[in-house]
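USER:
I would value a second opinion on how I read folds in token form. Give me a protein, with the fold worked out from its sequence. Write it directly below this note and I will take it from there.

ASSISTANT:
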Amino acid sequence: VQLQASGGGLVQAGASLSLSCAASGRTFRTNVMGWFRQAPGKEREFVASISSTGHIKNYADSVKGRFTISRDNAKNAVYLRMNSLQAEDTAVYYCAARWKPRPGVRSVSDYDYWGQGTQVTVSS
């Protein structure tokens, strides 16, 4: 699976931004997909995940109620809508795909493929 993330940028606090991740390669619709982020000097952290059907979504507590993950299997794409952005959301955002079945969705080790990342910068 090849993943290409896009949509990052520089925005002011309180603004919204949408990220997209285009997938190609293995059958996309069978993958659990996730978004992670990594701020300078910090470890990569879980943001959100979505099941293959889109029915099950998980969010980090820090983004719950502000971010929404979605997917379009017909377009082989997963999205992250980010509202009410805060300075603490500044990070490189990565999309990830899981191929091998695993019980969890919140760890870096739960995913097999990664995109190259897109920078999100929120100015306060």
